[in-house]
Hints:
Layout: H1 2-16, H2 18-50, H3 54-103, H4 111-150, H5 152-199, H6 201-206, H7 210-255, H8 257-262, H9 267-307, H10 315-321, E1 325-332, E2 342-349, E3 354-358, H11 365-372, E4 380-385, E5 388-389, E6 398-401, E7 410-411, H12 412-416, H13 425-435, H14 438-444, E8 450-451, H15 458-471, E9 476-480, H16 488-501, E10 504-508, H17 513-517, E11 520-523, E12 530-532, H18 534-540, H19 542-551
Parallel strand pairs: 3-10, 3-11, 6-9, 9-10
Antiparallel strand pairs: 1-2, 1-4, 4-5, 7-8, 11-12
Helix pairs in contact: 1-2, 1-3, 2-3, 2-4, 2-9, 3-4, 4-5, 4-9, 5-7, 5-9, 7-9, 13-15
This protein binds adenosine-5'-triphosphate.
Adenosine-5'-triphosphate binds near residues 341, 361 and 362.
Amino acid sequence: MRRRAVVWIVWRALRREPGLARALAGWSVVEALPALVIGHAVAGAVGGFAGGDIGSAVRWLGILAAVWAAAAIGAQRVVLVVARVVEPFRDIVLTHVVRESIEGARQEEGAAARANLQVEVARDALAAVITVVRSFLFTVAGVVIGLVTLAPEIALLVLPPFLAGLGVFLVSLPVLARRQRDFLIADERSVTAVGEIAAGLRDVVACGAEERMGDRAAGPVREQAAAGRALAAVTGMRTVALAMGGWLPLLAVLAGTPWLLRRDVTPGDVVGALAYVTQSLSPALGGLVSGLGMSGVRLVVTLDRLLTPPSIPAPRRERALRPAIEVREVAFAYGEHAAPLFENLSFTLTDGEHLAVIGPSGIGKSTLAALIAGLLVPGKGEVLAGGVDAGSLHPADRTLIPQEAYVFRGSLLENLRYHAPDTGVAAVARAVGEIGLGEFAERLGGLGGEVDPGALSAGERQLIALGRAYLAPARITILDEATCHLDPAAEARAEEAFMRRGGVLVVIAHRTTSALRAPRVLLMDGPDLALGTHQTLRENNPRYADFLDEKVPT
Ligand SMILES: Nc1ncnc2c1ncn2[C@@H]1O[C@H](COP(=O)(O)OP(=O)(O)OP(=O)(O)O)[C@@H](O)[C@H]1O
């Protein structure tokens, strides 16, 4: 379908302007003139010099120089004509993609913008393919005519190995195209995987999930390496084709020279034949092999993307609309012989739910946060976020703020809009008010005020990180003692802002007062975990009551 579409579009462009086909053919002939003339000119010049007819030799060289000059003009005109042939291709493909976009077949964010870029790439690739194939055909035609008119015996020596090399290349082309395509796709996958990890690197380090993330990236990287090796194997076929088609004819002429001389072929004709092979035939085959191998494959891969509707409908959007956490029979331990932190943990949080996790230091609260964020993998059971494995979440789908907040040198606005760069200033100002950043922003001189990370207190840094998470598009927010440097009133204000914001909120509590605000509370105080509301836990769970009594002075 793709190949037919390309041929159809090129055909339409040529039919729309019949003069275009004529101009392309005419200028291609001019461009290929040296391929036709070079052997005769060299043979004539050698014959002239050898026979003492310097005038004839110089005339032949003059003809060759004139032909090269004409070919240079021809090459320039060919570029202009090819540009006119491929321009309608750009318009037709782009119209097709935009129509699909409007009709909803591919309602991905930024699809049209990305398609525009890809269409440019495809157009350039098509121009390169047309240029290369056309140049090859006209050059080979020129060489064949030149050889046959120079000495048909030489054509007999040159053409069979050349055609064999061409055949090997054409046979290997589909496999080469497939392998190159696989390699490009594997390359993109590994870049995406590494890019996603890089985007969440701070969380990864904060949660000690380097190994897990390394494992996650290792799969695509290994696949890319395998695709690279498979590609290298067929690339060898290309070298064989080039050696057969480009260099065997040369050897055949050299080895056949005695035979040629016996059949009254002159030494000048033999040198002329060598010029045909080395200056025209071999470079033409090399150009076809590398041009089709690169531009042809790029054209096929890009058109594939453009003309085939995506088979996987944008999963991220849907997940973002239905945030939910499902922790199912999870067991986790750091290492084989370590005591398990959880043995059979299960709970579900739906959109709008808010859970506070409380428990003594070192019991595993941050570990639970990392499991929910998908930064750690449970030993048993599973953690789902938005219906998929939490480990496969895109970093933009959830926000995890650890204790030590990250801010960078730049304006307060830049710091706050880090995860949502398109947010309007009015929305940022509202978030500042909600989170309780107003006073600090005022001191800084407004949203444009410069943030100097070293000059800020830990609490101020936390407020900025909270404001940033509040504005982030993620609908799953995990605050891992992210308010520990705030005073209780500021902490309450920030948590309440997140509760009003919606989505799923998990607060790893630094103070037990967080539990009083949360509709659901998870008490971690040993392997038996208790989950309930503050009220039910207080009434039914003596450990919870003790824990609160210890922590909250009455
Ligand atoms: N990467 C790790 N490798 C091995 N053990 C770890 C690792 N991270 C944490 N631990 C251990 O796991 C246990 C739980 O740690 P975790 O940080 O989850 O507890 P916590 O309840 O969040 O503690 P705190 O309130 O002090 O932050 C602790 O004993 C800790 O030493």
